[in-house]
Amino acid sequence: MAVTAVPVDTEGLDVAAGVQTAGGATLAVVMPGQQAPLGMTMSLPRRLALITWARRNDAWIIEDDYLSELQLKGRAAPALASLSTARSE
């Protein structure tokens, strides 16, 4: 397995940068609720882009959102699995 770091910015994981550097990957491990090491939440457009990438590449996403229940302000962002209920594109 080759591990590739993908940058994060104010919207969380930069999916476009990940596709550019490791577009053929078949697995993404993410913490969208608390993007390490900076702690921002992955935006909804980025979450949807990640799901689209996974569908197009028949890839897996492992979502580790262990801190989502500790969110102090507002509601926790939805789990990626809850956003991917529509199976067609």
Give a written overview of the molecule.
- The protein has about 90 residues and is an alpha+beta fold.
- Helices cover about 30% and strands about 15% of the residues.
- It is built from three helices and four strands; from the N terminus they run ββαβαβα.
- It has helices at about 15-20, 45-55, 80-85; strands spanning about 10, 10-15, 25-30, 60-65.
- The strands form two sheets. It has a two-stranded antiparallel sheet.
- Helix 2 links the parallel strand 3 and strand 4 (about 60-65).
- The longest helix has 14 residues, at about 45-55.
- The radius of gyration is 13 Å and the shape is globular.
- It starts with 7 loop residues before the first strand and ends in a 6-residue tail after the last helix.
- The mean pLDDT is about 80.
**Whole-Å distance between the termini?**
29 Å
The SSE string, one letter per element, is EEHEHEH
Oligomer: single chain
Low-pLDDT windows of residues: none
The count of helical stretches stands at 3
How many runs of DSSP E, i.e. beta strands?
4
Strand numbers in spatial order across the main sheet: 1-2
Main sheet overview:
2 strands, antiparallel
Mean pLDDT: 82
Q: What portion of residues is helical? A: 25-40%
Strand percentage lies at 5-15%
The whole-angstrom Rg is: 13 Å
The computed structural class is alpha+beta
